[in-house]
Amino acid sequence: MESQKQTGRGTRSYLALVTTLAIALTHDVASAAGSGDGIGSLTISNVAISVMNIDRSSKWYAQVLGFRLATRTTFPTVHAEVAFMTGPGIALEFVQVPGAHRLLELDAAPPAHLLPTGYKAIVFDVENLAVASKELEELGVTIVWNQQVIDPSTGLKSTLIRDPDGNLINLFQRKSRGAQ
Q1: Mean pLDDT score of the chain, rounded to an integer?
Q2: What are 117-135's pLDDT values in tens digits?
Q3: Exposure check for the chain: N or C terminus, fewer CB within 10 A?
């Protein structure tokens, strides 16, 4: 397991900004969903993740995060095997195509992982971060940081992990985010 301490004023400022935005978005998502027709009716259907091995990813997300396989299919137009997984308030779509490869820049330790543009992490809330973090440790999950204080002014903590393909997953304690 790797662990990393975040130091330096720039990192703290960045994390404070991300925390503020995440909290604001959490409150805005529920009130904005599905208002109107057309673009105004947008809601999230699922998050699609390109994976190297669809069976390994499906098994990992089931064992570690409690997702369940909803359906498995192929998309012949893009030569892809696809697995739809359902979980805690979200659906994931794993896509495996021949010749897939991981960009090394995506494996950089935070905050350097933010240098290449694109989506950065799936973020979940849990009731008890300490309990969830211990469970992840017991499962042998790759932990980037464990219960790291990311906003010293509020004590907000997160545990950041990687899935089998190196994708980042961030867990926050629900009550500490909702109380902000």
Answers
A1: 81
A2: 888 899 999 999 999 999 9
A3: N
